[in-house]
Amino acid sequence: MKIFASQVLLGQKLELIHNQIITIEQSKITAIVSGTSSDADIVIQGNKTLLPGLIDCHSHLALDARIFGHLDMMEDCEAKQTIRALVSLQDNLKAGITGMRSLGDRYYLDILLRNMIQEKTLEGPWLQVAGIGMKGLHGHGYVGKGFSGVEEFQRQSRENLFRGADWLKIFITPGAPPKNWQHSCFSFSRRG
Question: Structure pTM?
Answer without folding.
Answer: 0.75
